[in-house]
Design goal:
Elements lengths: L2 E7 L7 H10 L7 E7 L2 E7 L13 E2 L5 E8 L2 H8 L9 H12 L9 E9 L4 E6 L8 E4 L3 E5 L2 H7 L8 H8 L13 E3 L4 E6 L4 E5 L14 H18 L7 E6 L4 H14 L4 E6 L8
Amino acid sequence: MSAQAGIWNFNDKPVDQTLAERLSTAIAYYGPDRASRHMENSIGMVYRAFQTTPESHTERQPYVSGHGNVITWDGRIDNRSELISLLGTEMVGDRTDVAIVAAAFDRWGSGCFRRIIGDWAISIWRPTERELLFACDFMAIRHIFYHLRKECVYWSTDLASLVPLSGHKFHIDDDFIAGYLAYEPDCHLTPYREIRQVPAGQFVRVQNNGNISMERYWQFSPEFRIRYKSDEEYEDHFRHVFRQAVRRRLRSNSAMRLARSSDIRTPRASRHSACSSRTSDLSARSINRSPTRSRRG
């Protein structure tokens, strides 16, 4: 995964270049391949690239869209072909993931989020509207954390980087701890009361007066049903979806390694990844992690 972070001063005070550099350094571990930034008076956006796909080697972020929106993107688009087809002539030339997302946002606005299938997190600065958007995928596999203050907002895909750099005293969030001990805390909470994260299937809108709102772009529907006439049809559908999920995660420009437990179901995933990798001219290697068993006597 790559990494992104930034700061926006609501009072139009220029962003401290040293602070931007510190933000970039703090997330360098997650993006060893390239460091870049976008500095525009009161807003600074930093990006650290981890190039894992063929397209990512030509990607340049922060990315400025045709409508002037500035985007940092960390993720993987699984329905690239579908989006490129829908966007048509807008996708001539640059077809990196961030270019696809930028064109989609220019056309559909926040309505584009529900169209993007994959694991992703995105930050969008809209200079004309003077607002900032944070969004993440349906399941919040990728994260964006933000710290809202009276005079500014900090954000990062790495929680640990926000704590020392914001220069603020943080307090333990008792609701998060209680939720954690009960298996699952509310999805917008973090261990710190002052820091929140973007919930799954939602996006956060920050305006220049410091007002913040959350909007849902996707919600699971328990009423949706798939009906077939036989068990074999369900099995065929499952195999299709399973192969598709494995294949999409093998879009890489280097060898793939599969870390798996000794669960009886994981060899099937290994076989599918190996078959998909041969099709894609990749090398898939499996690392078997068997649990340690104690012996008595």
